[in-house]
């Protein structure tokens, strides 16, 4: 049924027309009031309540334990919006609706009347207030949406509407209207059923009238209301419940028993500390209940009361929890999240500190490198330290003050003390000696892959922990900036000194982990390669130094030889690809290496060696015959050719030098002069040259585990007899060749394969390793590839781009297998492409990349090739990336590791708390799943490598969601711990746990044995101690009791329990109403008498058949 | 690498992006499968892949659009060490072997083992016995491969890039099996009881009368 009013107000010009239409459709709705009633009618019919509903009696505590469902619909009374809501216990739906057909034969109480008289669900622990006050399992409620219903006439109008609607539809569910201010929770209602009508009314006062402050007064009131003053109290059933509140648990019950030590908090970088700063269990409410007494049995008037709570048949307690108690894990995380909103750059923050001399980051770093600085345990700011003593001296507010003190930690300081920073950096970079991580029983096996974090105990993980601790305890975002700066500086030092990062494995970046972890892995790979190279270079340099000294004395031409070798960097720089080369130069320059000085003097002599060049050309020509590549003749046109030439050149020159050497140092050796070029029997010196060249030039790939390597030291030691180091095979191979290139860079034989056109075994060459990539680099590559498209040209370009590695392998293969052909290569490299003695058809496609690459490949062993993976450049990229992160981005990068750590800690707690908190593991799993989805889908790396993408608002809100869940889980843990502590004297752990679980899972728990049971005794003791404390405060003369209040017996006059915070009564009776010939109908008065509230909820029924 | 970046454009038009990697011995037809799936083409002699190729293709399921980002890797042993880079961030993998060659099936098994050990735990793995058109040269039994796949929880199909047999099907089957809701937004999530039955502040609800 549409309401015309909204549309008319919105659209005045069409008013008349619409009204006309409306009139035609539904002319029966004459007034607003009728329309309003019609809306209610409609809702009742929609919800299928327009019939007589009868259900089996309620189960015990069903009002609490059952599931309540609500349905609502908007109503409108001449444009004033209302909401009609149906509240019903779920069970109602499952049961079939009974249409009572025999209602006329015998008078029958309606469902609401039976429920109101039902004593099994008095004082439900959790239910809608109307259900609690009137004992209902199903009711309708009209609430105004905006302004409360204040006037009597409006109230009557609404109440009448409800009554008419119920009558119209034959619905026997009570309907209420909320009146007065909302906070007062005042309702009036009406219910009707065949033969009976019930009115619901309420009284709400601030103070309890003296006349009605006891059962007698209330009884009298009900009797008066019913007009049955003479009816004996025997016919009135009274259920009573007194509630007592405990807000101070005393020293025995207080949790945390010891607040986390701020100092420990600030100095613990291993893991995160747990615990709460305030008790999450704030109050205990004890309810003493007398479920059933008849009115005549009770003496409760203004002079005397026989209610003794210690003798109440039923004791139950409920606990109130604080959701906003600060728990440490959440505290760390939320504080950390604050920095994610910062806009400053690292420089902004560091710069801010510079003016203050003692905050100079430079000083910090100076000290860092000072090995004599003693290890200092990190600090607690002075402010805090004094705060603690104050806190401790005032045990009354120990907890709250303690929380305050901790919260002050980060506000007190704005930077990390240099010595502390030094320790932190030391810790982060220390070896992963701490076995506590590895042996920890936490199930963290794959968590870091799931969360895309980093392995526990790794450098990245430690960094994250330190960052989150530093952020909380050492000065927030400024401290974070400081830490990061020191961290990156340290990384730089590690790189410069070629020291591997100890807490990160040397393996290619693992794309399952955090981008930061990948970057650090990448850096470590770079450092590893660098250190390898430098070790080799150092060894070689040592030899060379030795030689130089020897040779300079004996051979003045030597200087010239050296100069040729050193010209190479110039050529390479021409080639233009060598950022990395430049970058690495400073460190090299610093090396005290005589070679460089000598070389520099002689550079201009470079061109003066035509003879060698001629020879070289011949050599090249001969080499290239097989591959019919004649480009070589146009020397120095193509950069690669130039480079190649130069290396050859140098090689030859060096050869000669060595010849001279050999002649000189080993007279018995055959010093064949130029014959070396033809049948070179001395690979040893050549290897050495290679090493030297690598040292003087970063461009070249440094092989690991070169088989030739082994020869190098030997040659160095026994220079006089280099030929001894040759393997038999090599000698044979070389001797049998006429004017053949020397085989180089062999790894081992490839099975028993022999070259197709040579009587030589097929050797697997030493090859360059593939370049590792981080996910952003891979992403960038994907981007480039997808831009190239899948056209033929595109895929050719793509393949060409990737052919570097193939070319390198082919060159190495050619070097290792003189006289080889492509077929030989394919037999090793892609055996399935060599079928029945020839290449597979796809390898024979004219112009395919394998063929073209093969033809352009020259025999160059891996160690003399251009590096595929330029570790110098890559390392710089990583450091550049890290240096340019903003603190907010740092936070985002580190967060997965932090969440991982908190989850691990929660998991560890959950296994301990399993008996009392079985819901924690599923909650942890839920957090894990959410965090996993979040971090997995979070694209930290943009499509441009070395760019970091901050999270979107959506992602941020999801992060906060995860953090809230963590906070909630932690709060649960602390609740459980607090309760375990409070009820630890129950006995066995098992018993305690069972009780705690009960408390956590139910809103209210009945104590076994009431006041006299074990549980009751603990509760009593808490109250007793509290009473004693209160007494001591109120009676200062006995002040000395305060010190040992818990242990001592309370003052004799002190009752165990305080005055009840509230008293509730339910008085019921079945009485004839409105007249003596009426049926007996149910009447119910609920009353709550509290310090600042007096509330009556009365339902009075009338027989509608007999007056 | 980007995991499921599910974006809810409209209520139904959900687009999920998944990384898929092809693994297997060289010359079993990985590139041909991709070429068939992405472009509907087939070359009798497909050039041997160098490094890795990257292609994308979108398929539509009932209510979701699945975009595959396909990394087609080189099969040569030499490139084995590159594979983790591609499969670690992948949500799906197709391991390909050549039904006319028993060795390639053995190699496929090693790939599956490696994936199970090293890749993301919920990666969807499909096994494709390619070159099914060369049935007369068959060396790997369909039953054997099917049983193996069953044991290891793999999707399995015999395919032929040449005749297009089961090529789209295997990609579709993967798309079906991939978890579409992960990373999505409006999924009703399983709640733990305690959050429901004990909502924050719930104990202070309107039922309290004092």
Automatic annotation (TrEMBL), chain A:
Acidic residues compositional bias, start-end: 695-711
Composition bias, Polar residues: 640-653, 1032-1046
GO MF entries: GTPase activator activity
A matching Pfam family: Rab3-GAP_cat_C
Residue ranges, annotated region (Disordered): 623-728, 1032-1058
Primary location recorded for the protein, binned into one broad class: cytoplasm
Key words of the record: Cytoplasm, Endoplasmic reticulum, Golgi apparatus, GTPase activation
Database matches in InterPro entries: Rab3GAP1 (IPR045700), Rab3GAP1_C (IPR045698), Rab3GAP1_conserved (IPR026147)
Name of the protein in question: Rab3 GTPase-activating protein catalytic subunit
UniProtKB/TrEMBL annotation, chain B:
Lineage: Eukaryota, Metazoa, Chordata, Tunicata, Ascidiacea
Record region (Disordered): 180-210
Top-level taxonomic group: Eukaryota
Name of the molecule in the record: small monomeric GTPase
GO annotation (BP), single: protein transport
Catalytic activity: GTP + H2O = GDP + phosphate + H(+)
Biased composition (Polar residues): 194-210
PROSITE patterns listed in its UniProt record: RAB, RAS, RHO
Pfam families found in the cross-reference section: Ras (PF00071)
Gene of this entry: Rab5b
């Amino acid at each position: 049924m549409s309401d015309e009013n909204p549309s008319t107000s919105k659209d005045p010009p069409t008013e008349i027309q619409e009204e006309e239409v409306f009139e035609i459709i539904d002319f029966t709705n004459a007034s607003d009031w009728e329309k309003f009633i019609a809306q209610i009618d409609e809702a009742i019919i929609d919800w299928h309540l327009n019939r007589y509903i009868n259900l089996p009696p309620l189960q015990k505590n069903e009002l609490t334990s059952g599931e309540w469902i609500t349905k609502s619909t908007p109503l409108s009374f001449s444009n004033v919006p209302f909401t009609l809501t149906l509240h019903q216990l779920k069970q109602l739906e499952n049961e079939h609706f009974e249409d009572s057909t025999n209602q006329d034969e015998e008078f029958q109480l309606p469902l609401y009347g039976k429920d109101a008289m039902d004593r099994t669900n008095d004082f439900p622990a959790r239910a809608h207030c109307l259900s609690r006050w009137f004992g209902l399992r199903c009711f309708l409620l009209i609430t105004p949406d905006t302004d409360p219903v204040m006037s009597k006439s409006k109230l009557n109008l609404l109440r009448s509407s409800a009554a008419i609607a119920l009558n119209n539809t034959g619905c026997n569910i009570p309907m209420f209207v909320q009146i007065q201010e909302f906070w007062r929770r005042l309702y009036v209602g009406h219910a009707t059923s065949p033969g009976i009508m019930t009115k619901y009314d309420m009284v709400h006062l601030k103070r309890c009238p003296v006349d009605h402050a006891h059962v007698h007064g209330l009884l009298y009131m009900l009797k008066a209301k019913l007009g049955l003053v003479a009816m004996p109290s025997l016919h009135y059933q009274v259920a009573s419940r007194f509630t007592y509140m405990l807000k101070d648990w005393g020293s025995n019950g207080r949790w945390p028993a010891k607040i986390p030590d701020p100092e420990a908090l600030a100095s613990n970088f291993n893991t995160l500390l747990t615990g709460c700063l305030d008790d999450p269990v704030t109050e205990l409410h004890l309810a003493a209940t007398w479920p059933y007494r008849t009115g005549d049995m009770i003496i409760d008037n203004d002079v005397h009361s026989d209610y003794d709570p210690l003798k109440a048949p039923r004791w139950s307690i409920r606990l109130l929890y604080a959701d906003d108690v600060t728990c440490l894990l959440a505290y760390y995380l939320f504080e950390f999240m604050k920095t994610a909103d910062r806009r400053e750059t690292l420089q902004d923050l560091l710069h801010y500190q510079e003016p203050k001399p003692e905050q100079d980051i430079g000083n910090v770093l100076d000290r860092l490198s000072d090995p004599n600085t003693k290890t200092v345990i990190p600090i607690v700011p002075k402010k805090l330290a004094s705060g603690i003593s104050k806190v401790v001296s005032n045990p009354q507010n120990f907890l709250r003050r303690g929380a305050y003190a901790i919260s002050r930690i980060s506000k007190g300081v704005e930077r990390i003390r240099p010595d502390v920073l030094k320790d932190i950096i030391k810790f982060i970079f220390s070896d992963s000696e701490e076995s506590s991580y590895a042996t920890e029983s936490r199930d963290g096996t794959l968590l870091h892959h799931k969360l895309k974090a980093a392995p526990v105990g790794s450098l990245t993980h430690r960094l994250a922990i330190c960052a989150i601790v530093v952020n909380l305890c050492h000065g927030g975002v400024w401290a974070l900036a400081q830490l990061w700066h020191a961290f990156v500086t340290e990384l730089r030092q590690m790189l410069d000194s070629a020291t591997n990062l100890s807490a990160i494995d040397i393996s290619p970046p693992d794309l399952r982990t955090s981008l930061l972890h990948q970057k650090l892995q990448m850096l470590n790979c770079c450092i590893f390669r660098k250190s390898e190279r430098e070790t080799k270079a150092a060894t070689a340099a040592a030899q060379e130094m030795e030689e130089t000294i020897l040779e300079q004395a004996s051979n003045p031409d030597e200087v010239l030889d050296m100069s040729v070798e050193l010209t190479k960097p110039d050529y390479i720089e021409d080639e233009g690809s060598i950022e990395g080369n430049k970058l690495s130069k400073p460190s090299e320059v610093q090396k005290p290496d005589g070679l460089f000085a000598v070389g520099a003097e002689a550079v201009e002599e470079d061109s003066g060696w035509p003879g060698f060049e001629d020879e070289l050309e011949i050599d090249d020509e001969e080499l290239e015959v097989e591959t019919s590549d004649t480009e070589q003749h146009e020397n120095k046109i193509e950069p690669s050719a130039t480079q190649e030439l130069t290396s050859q050149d140098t090689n030859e020159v060096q050869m000669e030098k060595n010849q001279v050497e050999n002649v000189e140092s080993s007279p018995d050796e055959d010093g064949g002069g130029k014959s070396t070029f033809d049948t070179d029997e001395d690979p040893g010196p050549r290897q050495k040259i290679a090493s030297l060249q690598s040292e003087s030039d970063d461009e070249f790939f440094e092989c690991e585990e070169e088989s030739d390597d082994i020869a190098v030291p030997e040659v160095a030691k026994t220079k006089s007899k280099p030929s001894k180091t040759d393997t038999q095979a090599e000698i044979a191979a070389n001797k049998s060749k006429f004017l053949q290139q020397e085989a180089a860079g062999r790894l081992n034989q490839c099975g028993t394969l022999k070259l197709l056109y040579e009587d030589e075994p097929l050797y697997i060459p030493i090859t360059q390793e593939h370049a590792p990539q981080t996910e952003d680099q891979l992403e960038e590559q994907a981007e480039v590839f997808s831009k190239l498209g899948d056209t033929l040209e595109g895929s050719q370009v793509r393949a060409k781009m990737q052919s570097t590695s193939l070319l390198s392998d082919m060159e190495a293969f050619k070097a290792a297998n003189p006289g080889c052909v492509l077929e030989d290569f394919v037999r090793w490299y892609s055996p399935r492409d060599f079928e029945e003695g020839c290449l597979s058809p796809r390898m024979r496609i004219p112009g395919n990349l394998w063929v073209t690459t093969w033809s352009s490949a020259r025999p160059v062993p891996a160690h003399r090739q251009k590096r595929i993976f330029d570790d110098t450049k890559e390392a710089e990229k990583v450091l550049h990336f890290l240096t340019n992160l903003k603190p907010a981005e740092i936070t985002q990068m580190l967060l997965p590791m932090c969440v991982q750590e908190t989850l691990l800690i929660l998991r560890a707690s959950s296994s301990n708390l399993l008996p009392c908190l079985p819901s924690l593991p599923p909650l942890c799993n839920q957090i894990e799943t959410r965090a996993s989805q979040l971090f997995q889908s979070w694209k930290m790396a943009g499509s441009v490598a070395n760019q970091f993408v901050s999270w979107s608002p959506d992602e941020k809100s999801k992060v906060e969601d995860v953090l809230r869940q963590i906070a909630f889980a932690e709060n649960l843990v602390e609740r459980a711990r607090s309760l375990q502590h409070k009820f630890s004297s129950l006995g066995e752990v098992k018993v305690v746990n069972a009780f705690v679980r009960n408390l956590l899972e139910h809103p209210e728990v009945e104590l076994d044995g009431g006041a006299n049971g074990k549980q009751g005794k603990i509760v009593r003791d808490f109250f007793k101690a509290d009473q004693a404390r209160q007494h001591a405060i109120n009676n200062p003369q006995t002040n000395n009791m305060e010190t040992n209040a818990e242990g001592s017996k309370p003052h004799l006059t002190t009752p165990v329990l305080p005055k009840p915070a509230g008293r509730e009564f339910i008085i019921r009776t079945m009485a004839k109403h409105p007249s003596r010939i009426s049926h007996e109908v149910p009447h119910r008065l609920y009353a709550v008498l509290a310090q600042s509230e007096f509330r009556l909820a009365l339902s009075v029924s009338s027989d509608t058949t007999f007056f | 690498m980007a995991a499921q970046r599910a974006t809810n454009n409209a209520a139904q038009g959900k687009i999920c992006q998944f990384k898929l990697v092809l693994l297997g011995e060289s010359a079993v037809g990985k590139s041909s499968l991709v070429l068939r799936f992405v472009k509907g083409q087939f070359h009798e002699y497909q050039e041997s892949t160098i490094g890795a190729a990257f292609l994308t293709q979108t398929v539509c399921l009932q209510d979701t659009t699945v975009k595959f980002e396909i990394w087609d890797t080189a099969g040569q042993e030499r490139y084995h060490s590159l594979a983790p880079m591609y499969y670690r961030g992948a949500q799906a993998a197709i391991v390909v072997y050549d039904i006319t060659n028993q060795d390639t099936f053995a190699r496929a098994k090693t790939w599956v083992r490696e994936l199970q050990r090293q890749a993301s735990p919920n990666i969807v793995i499909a096994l494709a016995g390619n070159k099914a058109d060369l049935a007369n040269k068959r060396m790997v039994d369909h039953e054997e491969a099917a049983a193996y796949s069953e044991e290891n929880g793999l999707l399995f199909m015999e395919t032929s890039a040449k005749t297009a047999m089961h090529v789209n099907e295997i990609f579709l089957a993967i798309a079906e099996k991939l978890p579409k809701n992960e990373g999505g937004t409006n999924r009703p999530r399983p709640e733990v009881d305690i959050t429901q039955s004990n909502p924050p502040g719930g104990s202070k609800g309107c039922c309290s009368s004092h």
